[in-house]
Design brief:
This protein has 360 residues and is α+β, with helices and mostly antiparallel strands. Helices cover 35% and strands 20% of the residues. It has a seven-stranded mixed beta sheet. The protein has a five-stranded mixed beta sheet with strand order 8-9-10-11-12, with no helix packed on it.
C-alpha cells in the first residue's frame, strides 16, 4: 500500500511539473510569437533571408547533406559562392562562374593595387592559381555549406543587415550604410575581398584590439565580431606522428584482418593550423594528397559564425577537375578513425548568480 501511495505521489508530482512547464511554454509562445520561416532569394548577388530563423532553418536542413544536395540548393539561387560546392553535375556552371568571378576581381581596384604592390603579374589570367586561392579560403570560412551560402565577397544579408566576413573578423552593417563599411575597411587597410589578404601586422593588431565572442561597435552603424579561440597551453606531450612502418603482418585470408593490418600501417594524418583558422571557432585539418589531382581531406571543427553553428568531423575524397577546383569523388570505401576528442566550454555565465540572486 505504501509503495502505491508513493507511486501515485510521484505521478501527480510529475504531471504537475509537466503541466506547469506546458503552461509556461504556452505563455511564452503567446508573448513571443515565432518568426515566419521563408525561403531565401537573391538580392544584389547575395543570399537574402527575411530573418535569422529562416537562415538557420535552411542551413540546418543541408549543412551535413551530400555535396549534390547543397550544390542543387545553391545553384537554384544563382549566386557566385565564396567556396562553391563542385559536383560532376554543376561543373560547367561553376566553370562559367569562375570566369565571372575573375572579371569582378579585375574591377576591384584594391585587389589590383595589392597585386602590383607584391609584384604579382598575370594572376587573373591563370584560372588554376585563382582556383587554388579559392580553395585556401577554407582557412577562414571552413564550413563547406556556409561558405557556399556566402557570395564571392563573403557576404550574406539577413533582414536589413549585411554580414561581411573578412580576414580580421565579421562586420555587420545595415544595407543602407554599406558604403560606410567599404570606407571603414579602406581607411583601416583591411581587405574587402578574401582573395587578397590584409597585411599580417594589421591583421594581428586589429584582432587583438577587439574582444572575442561578443558583438561590439567599431563605428556608428558598424558592428564587429570574431570568435578567436585561445590556444590551450602545451602539456609537453608527444606530438602526432610519423609514418608507417608497423610490425610485419603475415598474409591472412580474413578481409577484416587484412583491412586492420593495412590501417595500422598507415601514417598518422598530422593536423595543421594557421593564424586565421580559429577566427570563427576551432578546427583541425589534415590533407593527404596522394596524387597530383587526388586527395583525402579530414577535418574536425566547431564553427561559430554568429548566424549559424556547426560541430563535427568530416572526411572527403576529392578530385581536382578541369576548373581547377576540388570536387568530391566517389570511392569504394572511406574509413575514419578518431583516437580521441576533447571539447572545452565556458559555462560559468550560466551558473554565476546575478546580483538579484546572490544569497537567495
Amino acid at each position: 500500500m505504501i509503495k502505491k501511495q508513493l507511486l501515485g505521489i510521484a505521478i501527480i508530482s510529475t504531471f504537475a511539473t509537466f503541466n506547469s512547464c506546458r503552461e509556461e511554454l504556452i505563455m511564452s509562445d503567446v508573448t513571443q510569437p515565432q518568426a515566419q520561416i521563408e525561403g531565401a532569394i537573391t538580392k544584389n548577388g547575395r543570399l537574402y533571408f527575411p530573418n535569422k530563423e529562416s537562415l538557420t532553418f535552411a542551413y540546418d536542413k543541408i549543412k551535413n547533406a551530400e555535396d549534390e544536395v547543397i550544390a542543387d540548393y545553391i545553384d537554384s539561387k544563382n549566386i557566385i559562392s565564396l567556396r562553391p560546392i563542385v559536383t560532376e553535375k554543376n561543373e560547367n556552371k561553376i566553370g562559367k562562374q569562375l570566369k565571372e568571378r575573375i572579371a569582378l576581381l579585375k574591377s576591384n581596384k584594391r585587389y589590383i593595387t595589392y597585386l602590383e604592390s607584391k609584384g604579382i603579374q598575370n594572376k587573373t589570367e591563370n584560372n588554376e592559381e585563382i582556383a587554388d586561392d579559392i580553395d585556401d579560403l577554407e582557412e577562414i570560412v571552413g564550413d563547406d555549406a556556409y561558405a557556399a551560402f556566402l557570395d564571392s565577397r563573403a557576404e550574406i544579408q539577413v533582414a536589413d543587415k549585411i554580414y561581411k566576413y573578412t580576414d580580421v573578423g565579421l562586420f555587420i552593417v545595415k544595407d543602407t550604410r554599406y558604403n560606410e563599411l567599404s570606407q571603414y575597411l579602406a581607411i583601416n587597410n583591411i581587405s574587402d575581398d578574401l582573395m587578397y589578404r590584409t597585411d599580417p601586422l594589421v591583421q594581428q593588431e586589429y584582432i587583438e584590439s577587439k574582444p572575442s565572442g561578443v558583438e561590439t561597435s567599431v563605428q556608428e552603424g558598424i558592428d564587429y565580431y570574431n570568435n578567436k579561440m585561445i590556444a590551450p597551453e602545451e602539456d609537453g606531450g608527444g606530438g602526432g606522428g610519423g609514418g608507417g612502418g608497423g610490425p610485419y603482418n603475415p598474409p591472412v585470408g580474413d578481409p577484416n584482418i587484412q583491412m586492420a593490418n593495412f590501417i595500422n600501417s598507415l601514417p598518422n594524418c598530422d593536423t595543421y593550423s594557421t593564424l586565421l583558422q580559429d577566427l570563427f571557432g576551432d578546427s583541425d585539418n589534415c590533407v593527404d594528397r596522394y596524387e597530383d589531382r587526388r586527395r583525402v581531406k579530414t577535418k574536425a571543427f566547431n564553427y561559430n559564425y554568429i548566424l549559424v553553428y556547426n560541430l563535427g568531423v568530416k572526411v572527403k575524397h576529392q578530385y581536382k577537375g578541369w576548373t581547377g577546383l576540388w570536387r568530391k569523388e566517389k570511392v569504394d570505401e572511406i574509413r575514419l578513425g578518431v583516437i580521441g576528442a576533447e571539447f572545452t566550454y565556458d559555462y560559468q555565465s550560466y551558473f554565476d548568480p546575478g546580483p538579484l540572486n546572490q544569497g537567495s
